[in-house]
Amino acid sequence: MAKDVIPTPDPRQVRFAKGALERIRRRRVREFEAMMTTGFTRTCPVCGYVGEFAPVGEPPRLDGLCPLCRSRERHRLFKLWIDRRGGITRDMAVLHFAPEPVFEPILRGLAGTYVTADFMRSKVDRKLNIEALDLDAGSFDLIVAHQILEHVDHHKALAECFRCLTPGGRLVVTTPVIDAWETTYENPAIQTARERMLHFGQKDHARYFGRDLKDHMRAAGFALHEFVSVEPDVSTYALMRGETLYELTKPANEPKPVAKTKTRKG
Ligand SMILES: [Zn+2]
Questions:
Q1: Using an 8 Å Cβ cutoff, are 170 and 142 in contact?
Q2: Residue 255 has pLDDT above 60, yes or no
Q3: Which domains does the chain have, with CATH numbers?
């Protein structure tokens, strides 16, 4: 049987190999770092930071993260909505589901009443199930529920938020939507966390919305305004192109039932 002939390298060659290995590793790290850096100057509307942003997520989204306040794209879109359309004043009551820490001081500073809520988390003012709200009808002027609808029965959630809003009050939501899909993708055969990851994009998502979500919002009684990220905001504030914040308004005057009057001649 033939024997392998493995030569013994010169110790100087081994030292060279170790140096080469280190140089290759450092070069790859530099290449990776260069890939993660754009060199663009961005502005954070949440905290006011101006400068380079950082990558975030897996796979990384370049310039997705403000290094000062750690806001993501959708947070910055929401701040632009607050500034431009929010109109939040001291006489308003705001309910904030799954509150992002970066917004608590901002909303608390604007609203007269500010209540945080969550079904799972404990460090909030109220433990509330958005599908069955333990709240009086018409008790809030603004409800904020980012990244909630894809986790819950959204028909129940929309109906409950509608009930708990004052006339003219608004619900603000963001949720993943595939606008090119006519209908929402739900699939009762999908049961495990791993299957939900494959089909719905996250292990605790219940569906993937199509553009019929907007019909569901209107069917719940809301008037819909879409606040969409467009240029120059996208490049200035590092937003996701076309990301949409849904602003749902409960009509100020609910349509009065048509009075049936009988006229009698005589
Ligand atoms: Zn920031």
A1: yes
A2: no
A3: 72-249 (3.40.50.150)
